[in-house]
Amino acid sequence: MLFRKKTSFDENDFDSVVSACIAGNPQAQRSLYKQFYGYSKSICMRYTNSMEEAEEVMNEGFFKIFKNLERYDPGHPFKAWLRTIMVNTAISYYRKHKKHSEDVISIEDAPYPHFDENIIGQITADEILQLVQKIKPIYKNVFLMYVVDGYNHREIAELLDINEATVRSHYVRARARLQHLIQQYYPNLFPTGWPIKTFKGNEN
Questions:
Q1: First to last CA, the chain
Q2: C-alpha 85 chain-centroid distance
Q3: What domains appear along the chain, each with residue ranges and CATH number?
């Protein structure tokens, strides 16, 4: 429609914002974008390797959100619906650009000793996510999808177009690499005499 009626909305009434967005009101779309910008950016930053990539994924995600907003079920939390779209967009971006680069830190694939989960509990979520960014992208994505965003192995396998056994293997490897990074960056958390694996290379 060339001339679309400008739909009024109340920024404090989320339902009216959504309705105005569906009607094509650009002010309402800007309002929705602004409200969920920070949340969406944090999701996209987890799955990408730079601010530029995160912005690209987020903008594509919002394009999909506005295009499919009529399909949103008001009976479910909007943030959960938005998160699903942002994660799926990030994974599609990963698959499109074949982000199969090497680890930022190259680590041998030999078994790692088990350590108490309480060690992770002594590190903040932000610190853990910073370390996760140093893991090979395919392992990182599986770890984030499973631990942070709540996907099960079957769902991850479908989204990444790999089998469930591979998903489980990637998750185990991600945990092993995270353990090694924690040991490198927070050695004080480990008991004296804890086995230390040797890096093949240095950080890039």
A1: 52
A2: 11
A3: 14-97 (1.10.1740.10), 101-204 (1.10.10.10)
pLDDT in tens, 18-66: 999 999 999 999 999 999 999 999 999 999 989 999 999 999 999 999 9
Q: Report how far residue 153's alpha carbon sits from residue 193's, in angstroms, rounded to the nearest whole number.
A: 35
- Beta carbons of 177 and 139 less than 8 angstroms apart: yes
Asked if residues 46 and 144 have their Cβ atoms less than 8 Å apart, the reply is yes
Query: What amino acid is encoded at 67 in this protein?
Result: K
Residues in the chain, overall count: 204
The H-assigned helical ranges of the chain are: 14-22, 26-47, 51-67, 78-97, 118-121, 125-132, 137-143, 153-160, 164-185
CA–CA separation, 20 and 32 (whole Å) = 10
Name the token pair of 97: 């650009």
Q: Which residues contact 183 (CB under 8 A, 6 or more apart)?
A: 190, 194, 196
Determine the Cα–Cα distance for residues 36 and 182; give it in Å rounded to an integer. Answer: 32
